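Below is a filled-in request sheet from our internal design queue. Each sheet records the structural input a requester submitted and the sequence that came back. We keep these sheets so that new team members can see what a complete request looks like end to end.

REQUESTER: design group, bay 2
PRIORITY: normal
MODE: inverse folding
CHAIN LENGTH: 396
BACKBONE (tokenized):
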């Protein structure tokens, strides 16, 4: 099969911008070959970032702040235009030519019932703007079909990790630390992927309260404090951590109101340093607990959280197995999810299923997403006849 040049776009739960990656992919028998061409981030304008944060459930303090149809239409358009700009940047990364764009959009809401069943998921970022800006076909809305077939719709990283780490010995856990942390278990008792709980979400909220900047850069604030035992115990008691996998969550659960309720139960004030140290420890412990439960022999970490040395050190203290950052295996930690998105689009374009039932909980594998035509007639390639079993990185 000839190489297909694909752009992958997404914005994570931090809602701070659009990650874009350009890659060439092709099928060689049962192997997907992926050649990274470049990656970048296009930050949201400050006003748009604030508007997105304002419609999160934790920001709704009254009817006047509810997200109505007009607000949702405007956000879908503004985010779509920002994704379109990111796609144009991706075309530059790809050397001026691409065949396909894949977009995971911006998750605005993930509807999880109390039992843990996902009833719906909403990603915005109208793909028509991307198609119009680039003239390329766009694969989007990649989560909804998995939900409709009984899955969690997240994390979709399971398909990438299962292929990429297929030849690793023993049980390897692929970890992504974004706003929410998630793991994929490769080589274990059964295929499995799930959200372990908050990654940077609560840390970012606390940092915003303390400094006005929604990030504890390099863990500097956490490094000044010590873990508050009562607060950590209160947070770790959350029933989410004991819920069986597969499971998924988001900022509609781990949000500002959640943190406020936990702090209100304490009998003393918590300093800024102690608060950030405690939330950093919470993320490390809940991830380590999940890795231990899955009998990990090695952990391969990616996502923005690996750039926080305090968090990474706390995680290494809690794990009793080696932890490596994905960069060491050739996959940039900061852009892995954008390359995942490119892979998902490539699979859909070639008629290959993009979810693994054992990971998301879907009852059957499905070809994911919807396709928006580019400037010309939509011409799909012949569907692949073989399901891929591994992914090989072709590095320069």
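RETURNED SEQUENCE:
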């Amino acid at each position: 099969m000839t190489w297909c040049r694909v752009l992958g776009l997404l914005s994570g739960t931090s809602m701070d911008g659009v990650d874009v990656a350009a890659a060439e992919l092709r099928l060689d028998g049962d192997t997907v070959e992926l050649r990274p061409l470049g990656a970048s981030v296009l930050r949201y304008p400050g006003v748009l970032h604030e508007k997105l944060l304002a419609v999160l459930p934790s920001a709704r303090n009254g009817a006047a702040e509810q997200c109505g149809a007009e607000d949702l239409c405007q956000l879908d358009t503004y985010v779509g235009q920002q994704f379109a700009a990111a796609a144009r940047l991706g075309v530059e990364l790809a050397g001026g030519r691409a065949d396909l764009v894949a977009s995971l959009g911006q998750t605005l809401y993930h509807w999880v019932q109390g039992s843990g069943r996902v009833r719906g998921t909403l990603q915005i970022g109208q793909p028509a703007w991307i198609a119009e800006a680039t003239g390329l076909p766009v694969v989007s809305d990649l989560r909804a079909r998995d939900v409709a077939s009984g899955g969690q719709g997240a994390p979709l990283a399971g398909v990438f990790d299962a292929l990429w780490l297929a030849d690793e010995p023993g049980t390897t856990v692929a970890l992504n630390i974004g706003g929410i942390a998630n793991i994929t278990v490769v080589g274990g008792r059964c295929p499995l992927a799930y959200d372990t709980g908050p990654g940077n979400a609560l840390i970012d909220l606390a940092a915003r309260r303390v400094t006005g900047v929604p990030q504890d850069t390099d863990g500097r604030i956490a490094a000044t404090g010590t873990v508050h035992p009562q607060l950590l115990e209160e947070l770790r008691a959350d029933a989410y951590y004991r819920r069986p996998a597969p499971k998924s969550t988001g900022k509609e659960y781990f949000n500002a109101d959640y943190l406020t309720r936990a702090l209100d139960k304490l009998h003393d004030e918590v300093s800024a340093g102690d608060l950030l140290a405690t939330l950093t420890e919470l993320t490390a412990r809940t991830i380590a607990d999940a890795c231990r439960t899955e009998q990990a022999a090695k952990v391969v970490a990616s996502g923005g959280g690996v750039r926080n040395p305090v968090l990474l050190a706390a995680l290494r203290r809690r794990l009793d197995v080696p932890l490596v950052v994905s960069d060491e295996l050739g996959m940039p930690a900061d852009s892995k999810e954008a390359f995942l998105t490119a892979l998902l689009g490539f699979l859909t374009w070639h008629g290959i299923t993009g979810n693994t039932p054992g990971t998301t909980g879907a009852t059957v594998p499905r070809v994911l997403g919807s396709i928006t035509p580019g400037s010309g007639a939509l011409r799909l390639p012949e569907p692949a006849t073989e399901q891929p079993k591994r992914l090989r990185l072709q590095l320069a």
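SHEET NOTES:
- Residues 182 and 195 are 4 Å apart (CA to CA).
- The first strand starts at residue 4 and ends at 11.
FILED BY: M.R.
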